[in-house]
Amino acid sequence: MDGWTREGYGGTGPGAITPDGCAVELYARLPVGDEPDVIQRAVPAGARILELGCGAGRVTHPLVERGFSVTAVDESPRMLERVRGARTVRSAIEELELDDRFDVVLLGSFLVHAGDPEVRRGLLRTCRRHVADGGCVLIQREDEGRHEGLPRERRAGDGFVRVLSSDPVGPGVRSVHVEYVFPDARWTQTFLSRPLTAGAFELALGEAGLAVDAYLTGDRTWVRALPVAGRP
């Protein structure tokens, strides 16, 4: 572990485990999906991007290769050791205080569904605080039915990602258990998720001084939000 663990989060398997249960060795090998394509279509070429929760650079590296200037933030020093070509900052997202403002603030990996509403509010305040006037915030949210029809699995390179269960553990909060199986290793991760309807999601953005500009994908999982003038 990185020295401490967030309550309700955990992980097992080879190598270092971060406070939210992510295995560094695992995230260094997971292939990137369509995230770089979605981001590239949604923002100006060469934009300055603040990536919150960069992990081992799975999305960071393709963005750098496409000509974006990326500042990558993560609370795990072990994750940041894997990041190349970007400025790195070690910090919990909700505690981040940089002097810079960015063309794009990126909050991926469904982080907006943090189990603790105060953490979610902190994440969105960080997004609003660091986006430039005229800039945008890109947020990845859960698709409808993400916690249904389990167990469910998909390929990931030469391995499998299996979402085994999603169990209620409190009002509006679920504990999700995921298994990652590769020919040479196996990891597990448990984390908390608070599903949000589209209305609840947009309300949470509004509380942070952000407003939806567009849903960027057919499943409405990627959202571009804009800062509301006069709202801190």
Which key features would you list for this structure?
232 residues; alpha/beta; seven-stranded mixed sheet; five-stranded antiparallel sheet; 6 helices; 21% helix; 35% strand
Your description of this structure?
Helix content is 21%, strand content 35%. It is an alpha/beta fold and 232 residues long. The strands form two sheets. It has a seven-stranded mixed beta sheet, sandwiched between helices. A five-stranded antiparallel beta sheet has the order 1-10-9-8-7, with no helix packed on it. β7 and β8 form a beta hairpin. The longest helix has 14 residues.
What does the secondary structure layout of this molecule look like, with pairings?
Elements: E1 10-12, H1 24-29, H2 35-42, E2 48-52, H3 60-65, E3 69-74, H4 77-80, E4 87-90, E5 102-107, H5 117-130, E6 131-140, E7 152-156, E8 159-170, E9 173-182, E10 185-193, H6 198-207, E11 210-215, E12 222-227
Parallel strand pairs: 2-3, 2-5, 3-4, 5-6
Antiparallel strand pairs: 1-10, 6-12, 7-8, 8-9, 9-10, 11-12
Distance between the termini: 36 Å
- Helix/strand-derived category reads alpha/beta
SSE arrangement, N to C: EHHEHEHEEHEEEEEHEE
Helix tally? Answer: 6
Alpha carbon gyration radius: 17 Å
Record field, number of beta strands? 12
The biggest beta sheet is recorded as: 7 strands, mixed
Enumerate the spans where pLDDT stays under 50 for 5 or more consecutive residues.
Answer: none
Instruction: Estimate percent helicity.
Output: 10-25%
Strand order of the largest sheet: 4-3-2-5-6-12-11
What is the overall shape?
globular
Strand content: 35-45%
Mean pLDDT: 96
